[in-house]
Design goal:
Number of domains: 3
Domain HTH arsR-type: 252-326
Number of strands: 10
Order of helices and strands: EHEHHHHHHHHHEEEEEEHHHHEEH
Shape: globular
Distance between the termini: 40 Å
Helix content: 40-55%
Pfam families: HTH_20 (PF12840)
Strand order of the largest sheet: 3-4-1-5
Largest sheet: 4 strands, mixed
GO molecular function: DNA binding; DNA-binding transcription factor activity
Keywords: DNA-binding, Transcription, Transcription regulation
Structural class: alpha/beta
Protein name: Transcriptional regulator
Length: 336
């Protein structure tokens, strides 16, 4: 059990974020892939992903052994909202930070696989592990990422509404069955053997939902004044899951027609990512490339574009929505 202790200042500094990013969700998905819980939600995804794993799965097993703690690439990779940013952060991680993660890993598992010990001093080893994670991400998570991100955005919005209407007490009281708010302490059952008291001491708490994580998780460094982060499982039922997995299937089919990147651009625009800059950040490609893709989509009659103050905004046409098999009104969001 983790006990997070609040001061009055910490209560005032509770914040919400939609995701730790694709690298963290990819790491969390490995635990779900190995597990057996949530079969009605994740069963089909597990079978599809397991059937495609290759010899590099040994590296994935080293990163996320059956018993926690894992080698926490999410901490080393930071909270970048695109895979490329997280990859750069991981490759540039200080040796002492990597060593600290490996020491914590070794203190609970006895030995550290050679694949991981080499990460301290060998850049090629980091690139190899990163390449394995990226390959797994592209097969297991990327086909569904747009729908997953939309689900997490909706989760954050829902929690924000609760915060506005019922305050911090209402928010913390209903996060998850394994999270209990007994002011001034938040009791978090992370489903592991660890027991810790975590005083916030003015850090505040950042609440982040996860699509794949099945138990809450806490990121806390007593020597670091940065936010304590509580990652909790987002509300996910069969209907939500079907929507996510179906959207992934539709995205793959659309990619065969338009090309993967252009299909992703159209899907993101339909999700309400309206500006060229926001699209570039979401899809991790240059603004110039986005402009080329939106020009093709516009010429094909799948999107419209107009200027609003200093922003160039893109919106899907009815033809574009029909191609995506969507019959709802698209979201409108000006993203800078």
């Amino acid at each position: 059990m983790h006990r997070i202790h609040f001061t009055a200042d910490d209560v005032a500094r509770v914040r919400l974020a939609p995701t730790l990013g694709p690298m963290a969700e990819t790491l969390f998905s490995l635990g779900t892939l190995r597990g057996r819980t949530g079969e009605t939600v994740f069963g089909g995804w597990r079978r599809r992903v397991r059937s495609g794993l290759d010899a590099r799965s040994a590296v994935l097993a080293a990163i996320t052994p059956a018993r926690k703690p894992w080698f926490d690439m999410a901490i080393l990779a930071g909270t970048g909202l695109d895979l490329a940013e997280s990859a750069e952060t991981f490759l540039a991680s200080p040796r002492r930070a990597v060593r600290a993660e490996l020491d914590f890993y070794a203190s609970h598992h006895g030995r550290v696989p050679t694949t991981l010990t080499a990460l301290v001093d060998t850049p090629a080893a980091r690139r190899e592990v990163l390449s394995t994670m990226e390959a797994y991400h592209h097969s297991a998570v990327a086909p569904h990422w747009t729908a997953i991100r939309a689900h997490l955005d909706a989760e954050r919005a829902r929690r924000g509404t609760i915060l506005l209407g019922r305050g911090v007490d209402g928010l913390l009281s209903g996060l998850h069955p394994k999270i209990q708010w007994r002011p001034p302490t938040l009791h978090v059952d992370c489903g592991d053997q660890f027991d810790a008291d975590l005083p916030l001491d003015g850090r505040g708490l950042l609440l982040v939902p996860s699509f794949f994580l099945r138990n809450p998780s806490v990121m806390y460094d007593p020597g670091d004044p940065a936010d304590c982060i509580l990652i909790y499982p987002a509300v996910l039922d069969v209907d939500h899951a079907v929507g996510v997995w179906t959207a992934g299937t539709a995205t793959r089919a659309l990619a065969n027609l338009l090309g993967r990147t252009r299909a992703s651009v159209l899907t993101a625009i339909a999700d309400g990512v309206a500006t060229t800059g926001a699209l570039a950040r979401r899809l991790d490609i240059s603004s110039a490339a986005i402009s080329q893709h939106t020009a093709v989509l516009r010429e094909a009659g799948l999107i419209t574009t107009h200027r609003h103050h200093n922003n160039v905004l893109h919106h899907p046409t009815q033809t574009g929505l029909a191609l995506l098999d969507r019959n709802h009104t698209p979201a409108v969001r000006v993203s800078r």
